[in-house]
Design a protein that fits this description.
This protein has 15 helices and no strands. It is an all-alpha fold. The chain folds into 2 domains: 54 residues; 226 residues, MetI-like (MetI-like fold). It is flat, with a radius of gyration of 27 Å.
Length: 309
């Protein structure tokens, strides 16, 4: 009996040690996970923090190596100059409207094209999809001259038509990637949905509009946000089409200001760093606000679009 009691006590003590060891290992894994996440967050947030810190530094502190992150005498002079150099209150509505219209076009037309590639059998579908994939890897600079010649012949120069019309024809800023997103999403939906609708007499367009498109809300959100951000950041398209400064978008004004700073002396460029960082902050601020508003829905939707497969 005494031996059995001792063995039972040893067994209980061993079980307690195993429980403590398991808890310690769980805590260590949690700590390591947080350390990795903090390091990754620092890598991604470092440019943003540096941008904000530099934008509020006065000129005398830009060349002071003892001032690293927090300015001793913060100033908003860089933002005042940036608002003037960017023609901000005129170019901001232009960028918002053009990006929104282009994103709507790519979202609607991309859904229709992606649905066709994913669900409708037609001759040459694989070949056309291969051509679509090829357009993704072609640098936009290679087609810049043909685009300029085409827009000139159509008398579209100095208008927003070159920025908007291609999006409603399935060709926008990185439009091929967005079409692939739609194709991957529609390809993962069950075919029984179409079969049951076809039995009830629904045609392809009705099936797409009433059944498939409502199910594609995650893909629609992802495509719209990607299209909006990529169109907003695009400076090549406006540079090709727009010559009148009254029509400039924010990235185009940023390009002009960057060219001005880099063409000046090194001292002027270095002292103008707070102006440049303030201009970058003002340019990306609407995008950050958009992401903060839609972040919950965006992260919930992106794993349902085929991007993480």
């Amino acid at each position: 009996m005494t031996g059995q009691v001792k063995r039972r006590q040893w067994g209980l003590a061993y079980a307690d040690l195993q429980g403590v060891s398991l808890k310690v290992r769980r805590h260590l894994v949690t700590i390591l996970r947080w350390l990795v996440l903090l390091e990754l967050a620092y890598v991604f947030l470092f440019p943003v923090l540096f941008m904000l810190s530099t934008s509020f530094k006065p000129l005398i502190e830009l060349s002071n190596p003892t001032v690293r992150w927090i300015p001793r005498n913060p100033t908003a002079d860089g933002y005042v100059l940036a608002l003037e150099h960017l023609n901000y209150f005129r170019s901001l509505p232009v960028s918002v409207v053009t990006s929104a219209i282009a994103a709507i076009g790519q979202t609607l037309v991309g859904a229709l094209v992606g649905y066709g590639f994913a669900r409708l059998p037609f001759p040459g579908r694989r070949l056309l999809f291969g051509v679509l994939l090829f357009t993704i890897i072609v640098p936009p600079q290679m087609v810049m001259i043909p685009q300029f010649m085409l827009y000139s012949k159509l008398n579209w120069m100095n208008t927003y038509l070159p920025l908007l019309v291609p999006t409603y024809l399935g060709y926008g800023v990185r439009g091929g990637i967005l079409l692939v997103v739609y194709r991957q999403f529609f390809k993962g939906l069950p075919f029984e949905l179409e079969d049951s609708a076809a039995v009830d007499g629904a045609g392809p367009l009705r099936i797409f509009w009433q059944i498939m498109l409502p199910l594609a809300k995650p893909a629609i959100l992802v495509v719209f946000l990607f299209s909006f951000v990529w169109t907003w950041n695009d400076s090549l398209g406006p540079i090709i089409a727009l010559r009148n400064q009254d029509l400039y978008t924010l990235p185009q004004w940023m390009f002009n200001m960057t060219r001005l700073l880099t063409s000046s002396s090194f001292t002027y460029f270095y002292l103008g760093e707070n102006l440049f960082m303030a201009a970058v902050t003002l340019t990306i601020a609407p995008l950050l606000l958009l992401f903060l508003v839609t972040q919950r829905y965006f992260t919930r939707s992106i794993d349902r679009t085929g991007l993480v497969e």
